[in-house]
Amino acid sequence: MGKSPARASARPLSRRSFVGYVMGGTSLVVAADLVAGAAPAHAVPIPSLPQVPELYDLNDFLTHCALPTSNLIAIHVDEEGHAHFALPRMEVGQGITTSIGMLIADELDLPLDRVHVTLAPARPELLFNQLTGGSNTMISMYTPVRVAAAVARKALLDAAAVQLGALVTTLRVKGGVISDLLGNTLTYGEAAATAASPTTKRVRVRLKAAADHSLVGTPQRRVDALDAVTGRKQYAMDLDVPDALPTMVCRAPDLNGTARSVRNQADVASMPGVTHVAIIPTGVAVRARTFGQCIDAVRALDVEWSPGTVVGKSSADILGELRKAQLPLVVPKLGASTVEAEFVFHFRSGSALEPNCAVADVRDGTATIWGGLKSPIDTQSKVAKALGLPQGKVTVHVVQGGGSFGRKLFSDAAIEAAHASKTFGAPVKLMWHRADEPRQGRVHPMTTSRIRASILAGSVISFEQRHTAVTTDFTHGLGERLTAEVAALPTGLANLTFSESIFTLTQELPYNFGVVTQLLNETDHDVRRFNTSSVRNVYSPEVRCANELMVDQLAKRFKQDPVAFRRAHLRSGIVKRVLERAAELGEWGRTMPPGTAQGIAIHKEYKGATAVLVEIDCRPETVNRKVRDAVTGPRVTKALVVVDCGLVVNPLGVQAQMMGGFMDGMAQALTYSNHLVDGHFLEASWDNSAYTRQWNVPFEFRCEVIDSDRKEPGGAGEAGVAASMAAVACAYARATGTLPKEFPINFHAPLHFEPKPFVPSVPESPVNGLDHTF
Amino acid sequence: MPKHTFQLNGETVTVDVEDDVRILWVLRDVLGVTGPKYGCGINVCKACTSHINGKAFNPCSVPVSAIGEDDEITTIEGLADTAPGDGLHPMQDAWLEHDVAQCGYCQPGQIMAAVALVNKVRAEGRAITEDDLDSIRNVCRCGTYSRIREAVRTGAAAMGG
Fold first, then answer.
1. Which one, of B3, B9, B59, lies nearest residue A291 by Cα?
2. Same domain, yes or no, for A420 and A324?
3. From the CA atom positions of chain B, what is the Rg in Å?
4. What percentage of residues in chain A have a pLDDT greater than 90?
5. What residues form DSSP beta bridges with A579?
6. One domain for residues A421 and A464
7. Residue A601 phi/psi, 5° resolution?
8. Which terminus of chain B has a lower count of CB atoms within 10 Å, N or C?
9. Which of B1, B17, B31, B42 is most worth mutating to test chain A (most A CB atoms within 10 A of its CB)?
10. What's its top-level EC category (chain B) (predicted)?
């Protein structure tokens, strides 16, 4: 698509009336402004007393960042009557290709299976507006996509009116077939043939009323489900790019160590299947006919390594650094009137099941990249920089990803693949070995959260939280944009660091606790020391876990029931509603045997609210159950999520996100972490990193998506994590009668695995697989 | 290079590849059969779960030299052909009914493991229990676990006929 046409203000004429474009060309392509419907940033006042996210949150920020750089998104209707849309966002399992398709189908009156949503390649002209994060996709795309579809519908009807000789106002559409009052019909495909416009035209359209939607709000299964269950769904490593041979990297024993020299280069280069061996900035890359031969070559390499970035450090050292960096609490200790605690949250891997991977073909002064990338413009820029090429010489194709959870905001594998392809002079299909993912991949930063609440005359008069974290890396393409945008933020928000901005724009304690202060500090500002990322839900799981544990402590101090105490202190109507519904559905307060308990927690973010109620079993016979090579421990037997996430496009998709968010939150509370020992992380496999497995899953999981008063969608992708982690922690505290202060709760338990060697950097694949068939 | 012959999804295939290359890479890198996914390479994550002679196995941990020309390997691509009729395997239908997949990366392995588990439990003449479901080791990082449990039960009922 070319440059956007000159246009007047995209401000809507009414709430449902918008401006769009029929693009000049030989086929029907229509467009809408990507920021249609977003309120201008400067219109938002920030009074001092309510917390920032109540009035202006991260999603407003993400949406407003795009305003000065807005551009067009286009829908193409082909002569078969199918609609095509290249979404400038990344599908990683969160279901946006399905829900965006539903919006288009509804507005166009077209069956969902005739709407084809693909992923747009990097479009640098979109600047900030091609980043998938902050659960912002539905919030930011909801109106623009509908406007584009409405323009297409109008163009098709206008063309049909001419062909049928009928007044356009008398035409009706059903299932992509246009009919006039006499019963004459024309398909969208037939109309599309004459609907193209030689010049770009600006048109006004009126969006359908919610009552006229037939798909939006109904449960729809994923559009790619059949491909997923038949093995046809393709990820980056499944692409057939000519000559792109498997490539893997041998990495240093230390976190972020680098290769100085290879002592046996010729020997390894002559191993079966191996075509190339070379040092790249992150290690030694090997290219071979199969990944199996890459693994063998990586294991055979004899490399002289430079030390890493945290030589000799262990988790306890980092905890010491965090404690030194904690900002002071202001309200003095008032003896028995103070409730205070410090919580510690350990590093945990942010890896998806699909490892970091990308295909790269660098030749003749150009580079082409294929990968699951959530910040493709940033990838394009960083690959160009790595290769010394102009940005325009780098093409980045976005492929559906096998999960992300914040991980794919970074382009690590794409940059490595580009280096390897350039060095080898050959295309590569580069994939990380699993062992490298927890050891050298992106982690959620280690964090402490100190809270002091004060009680006076039967009321909570202050609630202070000091959150201290290892620096989170946010350099994935928000960087320059943010510098500019932060300065333009409403009064009182300027001059914050990037992390502090994200923290301030997301964290809200929705209780009336008098003076509330929540502050973030970071131990250092060197993002190269640890490889961090804004893992799903960023700061909220830790912040809210600490908050809700303290809320239970306060309730106990007041001798009140946790639900009654929360209800009395909540200042948000939508949070009260989800809390009350969860308490009702989950039979809050029912009698439970000793060693088992319920726990409940709430969270408000992404323009919505969640309440999670769980039941946990901490009895010895459960905690000590044995599963081979596994962490068992307390078992959550029942989980209930109640969510208000605004207007719901696809309730089935929202429920799926809540289930996934719950599995994350539970793992973070009970089992999932990385142990830093002597400068490197010990975990090197899925059996080492104890993310939720079937033996941890509740026997009963239920999610209710409640009818919201809001007419716009909220975010769902991350919304389930924080309250889930908090509810599990609260239930554990109630079942055991102890306040857990370090997470996951098993962090100091004896390791459940024998750490794999660090040299060679990856384990050998076993050969005894046939002994384990079933 | 040695030649290796085996049965793959109902067809006889022959590949030229070193003896010690694990079957996962023979499938993916040599034959272009990409349904089985890599998630660990050490028989832990189970993303590559496929069937050998009707039983679940993990091709990341079996060298190609360990199988003979009569051994039948079934990947997700060939699963539907192992069930009667022209449609999908009942377990795949169950997966669609419960809209199990999110990113989908682990799901071929999950489905192949589920079919083998149901067959094993049926051979023991009993119904699927919570303990059976707990024994599924396949990792799903999207956390679709509860829907997997429901789909296995639905698929088991349909397979029971």
1. B59
2. no
3. 16
4. 71
5. none
6. no
7. -155, 155
8. C
9. B42
10. oxidoreductase
Domain residues for the domain of A516 are 316-342+446-743
For the sheet containing B50-52, what is the strand order? B11-16, B3-8, B72-74, B50-52, B55-57
Q: Do A770 and B62 touch (CB under 8 A)?
A: yes
Query: pLDDT tens digits, residue range B62-81?
Result: 999 999 999 999 999 999 99
**What radius of gyration do chain A's Cα atoms show?**
27
> Are A423 and A539 members of one domain?
no
B83-160 topology per CATH: DNA polymerase; domain 1 (1.10.150)
Q: Which residue type, as a one-letter code, is found at position A116? A: H
DSSP A13: S
Interface test with A, best of B145, B148, B149 (most A CBs within 10 A): B145
Report the length, in residues, of chain B: 161
Query: May I ask the CATH class of domain B3-75?
Result: alpha beta
Do A399 and A414 lie in one domain? The reply is yes
Average pLDDT, integer, range A672-696: 97
- Please report residues of B whose CB lies closer than 8 A to that of A226: 96
Per-residue DSSP letter, A256: T
Rounded to a whole number of angstroms, the distance from the CA of A714 to the nearest CA of chain B is 19
Helical residues (DSSP H) of A671-708, grouped into ranges: none
Cα B126 from Cα B120, distance rounded (Å) = 9
Q: Which residues of chain A from 612 to 641 reach within 8 Å of chain B, CB to CB? A: 627, 629
- pLDDT of A4 reads 41
Residue A200 pLDDT: 83
Size of the A and B interface in Cβ pairs below 8 Å: 235
The model scores a pTM over 0.90: yes
Task: Give the CA count within 13 Å in the CB-facing half-sphere of A22.
Answer: 25
Q: How many Å lie between the alpha carbon of A139 and the closest alpha carbon of chain B?
A: 20
Of chain A, the end-to-end C-alpha distance in Å amounts to 53
| Preceding peptide of B63 cis, ω within 30° | no
**Helix, strand, or coil (residue A107):** helix
Chain B nearest C-alpha distance from A183 (Å): 37
Task: Please state the length of chain A.
Answer: 774
SS3 content of chain B, % helix, strand, coil (to 5): 40, 15, 45
Q: Touching check for A758 and chain B: CB below 8 Å?
A: no
Q: Is A235 in contact with B139 (Cβ distance < 8 A)?
A: no
CATH number at residue A694: 3.30.365.10
Check residue B141 and give its pLDDT.
Answer: 97
